[in-house]
Amino acid sequence: MDLEPHDRTAASDLRLARDVRCARLRRLLRTTIGLSQESVDLLTSMADRLRAAEGALPDPAYY
Fold first, then answer.
1. Helices (H), 1-63
2. Can you give the pTM of this predicted structure?
């Protein structure tokens, strides 16, 4: 059975998410599989807001 490009990407992403040890992070990653880039950007923005609200340090990858 041949998979569409989107399905191949999703399958690859799912394999990567499965390797994450932290169950909470793994769950978060799995819920993002298949979402549009716009939706992923929205989730990232929301995570930044939650970090600020909880007094967590900003994500150093962006600075």
1. 5-18, 23-32, 37-53
2. 0.63
Percentage of the residues of the chain whose pLDDT score is greater than 90: 24
With tokens 């990858």, the residue in question is 61
* Structural contact between residues 17 and 30, judged by C-beta atoms closer than 8 angstroms: yes
Q: How far is CA 20 from the centre of its chain?
A: 12
Give CA angle at 26 (51, 37), nearest 5°: 70
Q: Please answer whether residues 41 and 32 qualify as being in contact, where contact means their C-beta atoms are separated by less than 8 angstroms.
A: no
Q: Quick one: angle between helices 37-53 and 23-32, nearest 10?
A: 140
What's the one-letter identity of residue 61? Answer: A
And the tokens for 19? 């390797």
